[in-house]
Specification:
With 958 residues, the protein is mainly beta. Helix content is 10%, strand content 44%. The strands form 11 sheets. The chain has a 22-stranded antiparallel barrel. It has a 5-stranded mixed sheet with strand order 3-6-7-4-5. The longest helix has 26 residues. The chain is globular and about 110 Å long. The protein starts with a helix and ends with a strand. Keywords: Signal. It comes from Sphingobacterium populi. This is SusC/RagA family TonB-linked outer membrane protein.
Length: 958
């Protein structure tokens, strides 16, 4: 299968190159003088519009121009530094990603293939997409051919990824000492003897007294590498235009242990976009994409081991040196001779009776997994000019099909591990016995581990009408039908799933717009949506929007009196979008309106009536029926402003928005329906009950000017964001615990009042009901409701997590150009949100690995200065609750990229030269974080490290 895919890809590459070359030669003599410019228009929903006539909250990024100074691979790379209101979400909600108008994964396309990115933020701009686009849309449009002779652009990059920092864990002797202290705190005898601790600290025999440091150069390289090369072929004439992109990328791993030293990712991609003028009134397009991604990974999770495998781990030795085996013991020598997994000819694999295999031995001896992903994407389209029927009328149609398959080729080998017995004989420490776990095996065959697919089909048909009457009256209209269906065997994008219910969207879109002299604007857009998630009589709805605009700067009185303002436009919109994206409940998305009754207790449970008088096995699987279940509504009001100052050297865009999302699902068990039933299930139906609200203000400012020979451009974007739950199905005893009126991302936790200093303080405090005995050195919490017990009723709103969007998000980009030298930098930041230090690095429980955080632990000697609770080996959960003790401010500023580019002077290339242009550049990514919690933010806990990436690149045009 690998050979077939490789051969197919190679043939496709050769075919694409030959076609492009032949076309170029055939068309070169037939080139018109100019190609109609489209730089004054941008992509919007199902079409393009002139920038000056935008009346929605729409932001646009010209990627083709950006790549000349800012090289990246991710298609949405640092988009939040250019476009306001976007931080991965749009105005706090997850958007629909469309690549060339088709729902696709952003990772299926590289930035070098992209022509432009448009972010549609407000409801009026996304209404034509129906339910699927109701939370915002990101349009990624790929590059297309141009009317020009054959042009070949080649770009090559290579760079290194250098870890910023690693977690800091205690060494074995420190761990053993503090673990004994924790045992003493619990009234338990020490586990490690002073002799064992001394010998471990001395390091005279690291095999008998191990001190594992998995984050050392013994296991890790100083850096990993990444390289890529891309070739672009562009050309065409008025009959046909073509664009071909071919690329390959490779990166390795920072691991150098066992088979993990061969970990790598290798990817190939080919894209060909062709546009044809078949007749004076008929155009056609065809796009084809093939992506091949191969990943090689050794078995075992090394990064998980770094967070969980203790430095001494009760004597675990990953590698047992055979030169320490008793040479006079024939049984031991026989084990060496017969071992099929003798590492480097020097070591046997180590194990314990309580840990017979581990991630390290897996990486060394158990084989590998090759992940194979193959993606094919295909678009065809036709556009007909119907001016023969009436001027300005056009019809277009599109069809696309994407198919992704993923499978694994695995190689698994059984192996034996050994636990040594040490003795000192004649003053020499040697291994006199080995306890064996498991058996060595062998395998010569790979096997297919998993196999899954993911496919999307999309179809579009639309009529467009666009005409100007008497030079001043501009009328446009649109009527379209759009639908797509996504199926998966086991969801590649999430964890598991099935294709019993494919993801579907079907809708009819309509738009009517008018502007007078590009001064006064009115737009009515909407869609008729359909959903199979709802009862039959509720499956269709209308989503209307209305937008108005006024270009004040075109008024005569404004022109005559205000010279410094070159552009000033105000817009406003109101919309009601109906969507089924939030029609979800439990593990189901469909048939929530339908009750399912039966008498099988395995499907539901045993129920009793409220008076306990009668009961039975009549049960319900999944909830009661609700024939009134309906769409969720997004009601939105928006006001926008666009302004240009000083001949448009300063450009400003701003939007205020308020979204009310009504009819989110709830069960009504708290406030609507009484609790008549008890058991393993319930009869409560899903109802449209909960409401959310999001408000915010986003802005972008761009300043473009020149000082001497230096031209500069500075862009700043930002968003103030707030959300709250306006209605909830809930009942609490205390008003401060109601979620209604609180942020959607409210962080609930306890108010910590320091550490208990003595038993008397504990006795005089409210009882803390988290399990386990409270002792001096434990965290003390505030009894908020004054009932004498600390439990979940004492949790309060401590702040905002900022999961969807921080209260304040911002970004910047700056360009300085002097002659042929260009400096570019971009950054981003956030403020106003909080987080909790609640991973295993901070919350050390039981036999957990000790980090340097525990050095500030409470003891009787450090009671006045301690910043960490007492150590304990028990399952006491008192200290490990989200509270102000562990809370931190998530404020940060990131310097995401700096790039310096030098363009060779055009005079360097002769007219007859094969090379027409060449540029060299160097850039660095993820360079700096400025924050009070910088060390934590730059550290990967139980995961691969955060890296700075340094890259060198060259681009040449032929």
């Amino acid at each position: 299968m690998i050979k077939i895919n490789t051969i197919a890809c190679s043939l496709f590459l050769i075919f694409s190159m030959n076609v492009g070359y032949v076309q170029a030669q055939e068309l070169a003599d037939d080139l018109p003088e100019t190609d109609p410019a489209t730089t004054d228009s941008i992509h919007v929903a199902f079409g393009r519009t002139a920038k000056r006539d935008l009346v929605g909250a729409v932001s646009h990024l010209d990627v083709t121009e950006l790549l000349n100074k800012n090289y990246a691979t991710n298609s949405l790379d640092n988009l939040g530094s250019f476009i306001s209101g976007y931080n991965g979400n749009i105005w706090g909600q997850a958007p629909l990603i469309l690549v060339d108008g088709v729902p696709r994964r952003a990772e299926d396309i590289r930035l070098v293939e992209v022509e432009s990115i448009t972010v549609l933020k407000d409801a009026s701009s996304v209404a034509l997409y129906g339910s699927a686009g109701s939370k915002g849309v990101v349009l990624i449009n790929t590059q297309r051919g141009k009317v020009q002779p054959l042009t070949i652009d080649v770009r090559a990059n290579t760079g290194i990824a250098v870890p910023k920092r690693y977690p800091s864990y205690l060494n074995a002797a420190e761990y053993m000492t503090l673990y004994n202290e924790a045992l003493q705190n619990d009234g338990i005898a020490p586990r490690y003897s002073p002799e064992a601790i001394y010998n471990t600290a001395a390091g005279t025999n690291p095999y008998r007294y191990p001190d594992l440091n998995l984050l050392s150069s013994e296991y890790l390289r100083d850096f990993s590498t990444r390289s890529d090369i891309t070739t672009e072929i562009t050309g065409g004439n008025h009959r046909a235009k073509y664009y071909t992109n071919m690329g390959m990328s490779y990166n390795n791993s920072i691991l150098k242990l066992g088979d993990a030293r061969n970990n790598n990712d290798l990817a190939f991609n080919v894209r060909t976009n062709v546009d044809m003028n078949l007749t004076p009134w008929l155009k056609a397009s065809a796009d084809a994409v093939a992506n091949i991604n191969n990943n090689y990974a050794a078995r075992g999770n090394f990064w998980d081991a770094t967070a969980n495998l203790r430095p001494n781990h009760d004597g675990l030795i990953p590698l047992i040196p055979i030169d320490r085996l008793d040479p006079q013991n024939p049984e031991l020598q026989s084990i060496v001779r017969n071992s099929q997994h003798l590492v480097n000819g020097q070591y046997l694999l180590g194990g314990l009776s309580t840990l017979q295999t581990n991630d390290l031995s897996q990486l060394i001896a158990s084989g590998y997994i090759k992940n194979r992903m193959r993606t094919f994407m295909f678009n065809v389209g036709a556009d007909a000019d119907l001016k023969g029927i009436t001027e300005g009328l056009r019809f277009s149609s599109r069809y696309s099909m994407d198919y992704t398959s993923r499978y694994t080729e695995a190689y698994s080998i059984p192996y034996a591990t050994y636990q040594p017995t040490w003795q000192t004989i004649d003053g020499v420490e040697m291994i006199t016995g080995l306890q064996k776990f498991g058996n060595d095996g062998n395998s010569t065959n790979e096997f297919i581990g998993t196999s899954m697919y993911h496919q999307t089909m999309s179809i579009l048909a639309q009529l467009d009408y666009n005409r100007t009457f008497q030079a001043h009256h501009h009328v446009s209209a649109k009527l379209l039908g759009w639908g797509f269906m996504t199926q998966f065997s086991s969801d590649i994008d999430t964890n598991g799933g099935s294709d019993y219910h494919p993801i579907r969207n079907t809708n009819v879109g309509f738009q009517a717009a008018y502007n007078f002299r590009h001064k006064y604007y009115v737009d009515f857009s909407g869609s008729a949506v359909h959903s199979t998630k709802l009862p039959e009589h509720s499956r269709r709805a209308i989503s209307p929007t209305a937008t108005i605009g006024w270009r004040l700067s075109e008024e005569d009185f404004f022109k005559d009196n205000v010279s410094s303002v070159s552009e000033l436009r105000f817009t406003a919109s109101y919309a009601v979008l109906r969507q089924d994206l939030d029609i979800t409940g439990g593990d189901r998305n469909h048939y929530l309106y339908q009750g399912n009754y039966g008498n099988n207790t395995n499907l539901g449970g045993y129920f009793e009536w409220r008076d306990k008088a009668a009961g039975g096995f009549t049960v319900l699987a999944g909830g009661g029926s609700n024939p009134l279940l309906n769409f969720v509504e997004r009601k939105e009001m928006r006001f926008g402003m666009d302004a240009g100052f000083l001949d448009n050297r300063i450009m400003l865009n701003a939007n205020y928005f308020r979204q009310d999302v009504n009819g989110l699902l709830a069960r009504g068990n708290a406030t609507v329906f009484p609790s008549y039933y008890s058991g393993n299930g319930d009869f409560l139906p899903w109802i449209n009950f909960n409401n959310d609200q999001r408000t915010g203000f986003d802005f972008s400012v761009n300043y473009n000017d020149k000082i001497g020979n230096v031209r500069y451009n500075l862009g700043v974007v930002g968003m103030l964001f707030n959300s709250r739950a306006t209605k909830r199905d809930e009942i609490y005893e205390d008003n401060y615990q109601f979620r209604a009126g609180r942020p959607l991302d409210a962080a609930w936790g306890y108010i910590a009042e320091g550490l208990f200093q003595n038993q008397e303080e504990i006795n005089n405090h409210a009882r803390q009901a988290f399990g386990g005995e409270i002792k001096p050195g434990d965290i003390k919490y505030r009894d908020v409701n004054g009932d004498g017990i600390i439990d979940n009723r004492d949790q309060v709103d401590l702040g905002k997590y900022g999961w969807a969007a921080n209260p304040f998000n911002y970004g910047f980009n700056i360009t300085l150009k002097w002659k042929n030298l260009t400096f570019f930098a971009l950054g981003s930041g956030q403020s106003g949100a909080i987080g909790f230090k609640n991973n295993s690095y901070y919350w050390v429980t039981g036999l957990g690995k000790y980090s340097d955080q525990v050095l500030g632990r409470w003891t009787e000697e450090t009671a006045a200065t301690a910043n960490y609770p007492r150590l304990t080996t028990t399952g006491n959960n008192n200290n490990f609750q989200n509270s102000t003790f562990w809370m931190f401010k998530n404020n940060r500023f990131n310097l995401n990229r700096v790039q310096i580019t030098y363009d060779l002077d055009e005079r360097f290339f002769k007219p007859s030269s094969i090379v027409s242009r060449m540029s060299f550049y160097a850039n660095g990514d993820n360079l700096l974080v400025i924050s009070d919690e910088r060390q934590m933010m730059e550290t990967g806990f139980g995961a691969a490290p955060h890296n700075r990436f340094y890259n060198l690149g060259v681009r040449a045009s032929f």
